[in-house]
Specification:
This protein is an alpha/beta fold. Helix content is 49%, strand content 12%. It has 4 domains: 118 residues, Response regulator (Rossmann fold, 3-Layer(aba) Sandwich), CATH 3.40.50; 160 residues, Rossmann fold (3-Layer(aba) Sandwich); 82 residues, Helicase, Ruva Protein, domain 3; 51 residues, Arc Repressor Mutant, subunit A, CATH 1.10.10. The strands form 3 sheets. A 5-stranded parallel β-sheet has the order 2-1-3-4-5, sandwiched between helices. The chain has a 5-stranded parallel β-sheet with strand order 7-8-9-6-10. A two-stranded parallel sheet has the order 11-12. The longest helix is centred in the last third of the chain and has 19 residues. The structure holds adenosine-5'-triphosphate. Keywords: ATP-binding, Nucleotide-binding, Phosphoprotein.
């Protein structure tokens, strides 16, 4: 059901118009001034604003400009009894969706409203759930919760162990939200040195960073527990500025660390935690939802097969699936995907059998590491050699590797290497 905010300083007209709109099935909020409309929007987002042009105090066009700067993409239709062509031209040029002249023609009004709503209505809203495969009752309950959280436009904190699906849950939340046709901006707070992260989030001038770019959209702060003390303070300040009423930027953050413990140990600010954790989703580890394992294993194999046309394996034997379902999976769904890829790449028959699974789970694929494991090992050794050679000078090491500093820091983070440990002590 679409929600319309109707703004007019003529109270009797306000009553009449809202009756008309309600009779068409719209939910209608009213305000008798532009200032009142802005207050109303801060409390309750609307799908469309229908406003009079000439009003005492702020007029309809000034209201439109304020709406555009705070609720980008929210369509505004302006009505006026004093309709002049220059007014209409000015209104539509500045981005007002449409300009209607009073007395308003009922059919034209409804057609214009429906046209505006059809352009902004979230697409594929019902598909949001398809990203997350599950048949586990706890996860199904979480999906119901996620669907209602998605519609609330509040900050969400997603917790759960590494590889448990915090990233896909974020995509699903964004997809189910009214911002689904806007971008989902994402940044990993643990993968960048603090100054690069500061620059990316807030920009050099405080105007050009991700926070600014994500206005009207969603910003995913992955691994929020990795924020330095000073960035935690800065983020809190920004959220306080943005967070009055309906937030311009919807922040979804995630952490595999126990942030409550981090808070108790003084490593994470309490005030920031409560601001990010307005709604919470905590994903269970894969071992607590073993009924999902066959489903996810088949999905991982299908994905592998669609990327590698020469894959011989078509499926798993029941015994192989039982072994997968009984395993511990400390790396959760990501680890399961990686084991299935390894099995699919080694398998020469249509069915992946129990013996292969057993061998992969014990890490014993003939003593030969997988390509990914071998590459990770090589990368780590290589980075350590570079840092030893340059005595921890990251700029020099990045130059020698032919990478920029940001990429180089990402590599170091991925392998848990601290450049400072290679600096000479004297
Ligand atoms: N329920 C699920 N259904 C389908 N795929 C899933 C599901 N959960 C996770 N995955 C897949 O598992 C992999 C890891 O998931 P994801 O990156 O979302 O985990 P994460 O918790 O964000 O990990 P990390 O803490 O390491 O960032 C991805 O390839 C993702 O697509």
């Amino acid at each position: 059901m679409s929600r319309i905010l109707l703004v007019d300083d003529d109270v009797s007209l306000l009553k009449l118009m809202s009756m008309r709109l309600r009779s068409q099935g719209y939910v209608v909020d009213t305000a008798d001034s532009a200032e009142g409309a802005l207050d109303r929007l801060r409390q309750q987002r609307a799908d469309l604003v229908l406003s009079d042009l000439r009003m005492t105090g702020m007029d309809g066009l000034a209201l439109f400009e304020r709406i555009q700067s705070q609720w980008l993409g929210l369509p505004v239709i302006i009505m006026t009894a004093h309709g002049t062509i220059p007014d209409a031209i000015q209104a539509t040029r500045s981005g007002v969706f449409s300009f209607l002249t009073k007395p308003i023609d009922k059919d034209e009004l409804f057609a214009t409203i429906e046209h505006a709503l059809s352009l902004t209505r979230p697409k594929q809203r019902q598909d949001w759930q398809s990203l997350i495969l599950t048949r586990n009752p706890q996860m199904e309950q979480l999906l119901i919760q996620a669907n209602s959280i998605a519609g609330m436009d509040v900050p969400v904190l997603i917790m759960g162990p590494s590889g448990s699906g915090k990233g896909v849950m974020t995509q699903a939340l964004h997809q189910a939200s009214s911002r689904c046709d806007k971008p989902l901006h994402a940044i990993n707070c643990a993968a960048l040195p603090w100054n690069a992260l500061d620059l990316q989030l807030f920009g050099e001038d405080g105007q050009s960073g991700l926070f600014e770019q994500a206005k009207g959209a969603t910003l995913f702060l992955d691994e929020i527990g990795g924020l330095s003390e000073s960035l935690q303070a800065k983020l809190l300040q920004v959220l306080q500025e943005y967070g009055q009423g309906i937030p311009e930027v919807r922040v979804i953050s995630s952490s595999h660390q126990d942030l409550v413990a981090a808070m108790e140990e003084g490593r994470f600010r309490e005030d920031l935690f409560y601001r990010l954790n307005v709604a919470n989703i905590t994903l269970p580890p894969l071992s607590a939802r073993s009924e999902d394992i066959p489903l996810l294993a088949r999905q991982a194999l299908d994905e592998y097969r669609s990327r590698h046309g020469d894959c011989a394996a078509l499926g798993f034997s029941p015994e192989a699936l039982a072994l997968l379902a009984a395993a511990g999976w400390p790396g959760n769904v990501r680890q399961l995907y990686s084991v299935v890829e390894q099995l699919a790449s080694l398998c020469c028959s249509p069915v992946i059998g129990a013996a292969m699974v057993e061998s992969a789970l014990s890490g014993g694929s003939g003593g030969i590491p997988s390509f990914n494991e071998a590459r990770a090992e090589f990368e780590k050794e290589y980075l350590i050699r570079l840092l030893r050679t340059t005595e921890g000078n990251v700029t020099l090491a990045a130059n020698m590797a032919g990478r920029n500093r940001t990429d180089f820091y990402k590599l170091l983070n991925r392998h848990g290497i601290e450049a400072a440990n290679f600096k000479s002590k004297g």
